[in-house]
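User: Here's a chain of 365 residues. Predict its fold as tokens.
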Amino acid sequence: MRRYARTLVAFALATSVVTGTAGWVSTDAQQALTGPPPGSTQWRADRALGAELPDPERSTPAEVASFFAGLSSAERQLLVLRHPSVVGNLDGAPLELRYRANSLALIAADDSRYRSLAAPGRQILAFDPRGRGLVTEVFGDLRAAERVSVVVPGSDNDAGSFDRKVAAHGAPAGMARTLRTEAGPETAVVAWVGYTTPVGVGLDAATGTLAEAGAGRLTRFAEGLTADGLPEPAMFCHSYGSVVCGIAAPRLPATDLVVLGSPGMRADDVGALRTKARVWAAKDPTDWIDDVPNVRFAGLGHGADPADPAFGARRVPADEARGHAGYFAPGTDSLRTFAAIARGDAERAATAGAEGARALEGAAR
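Assistant: Prediction complete.
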């Protein structure tokens, strides 16, 4: 009887993730975008170079990188011109080719939703117009950077909303831009909207279906960076993006996993993530995510709070941040600590977190 009662309580709490926090948004259920990039059928049939091209779905990023390393400059440019949508989204392909390919793909798309992404000077590392659209942009010189960071956003992000001005510091491009400015010129930051995110707070946000699809895409993207000779990145995972990072953690090449405003990572503690990366967590006192029950039952909810000391993550101070989208706001303690992590100065970041915790304890007394 006692076990049955515990099950009922867990079910009620998990259900409240969907119904009690923000309502059931069943009409906004999303279909995850999976599979190879657009144009892959034509790519697979192409014999312009006298041989088969690497399969966009089955070839590993390392195999893709090896293939491009064996091509002449003219052969590389030929593939960009013939298959911009494939080259632009092909993890492991040289980033310079991907920039040019995506510029061509954006011009060809001729879609008002994405017109700003085609502006000269933008470094678009991936672009897929299908569905709500996916996009990845680089801030800084990725090829020359000593340290690389990737911002993994949560709900309500896609290619169409990528350049939104409202709550800019909470949007992927805004988060990446402010982090790179704070971290300095020797770093590069990537805004990765490379998976189908939930819309609103509803069933998609309370389950792991979209996160599981996103985790595979994030892992392949990160493997593509290292296959192209770039440093392993630090991952900054916001809100539902932290669920993506939690699921990807065992296979994800990363120096650090930094989660902020997290509803849970589908793990009971740091050890359960099975990652070699350092794990950090931030949650400001005004973030509504704190009202989401940290449970996981019958597929609903995402489990333990990474900001709870019992989880075992390193603390990122966030007392100066405001709301769910305020962690990257200039002048905040959270952004300063994020920048230290992005520069690879983990010890300074850890010290800042410890000092912040002691200050809070002193104020409480």
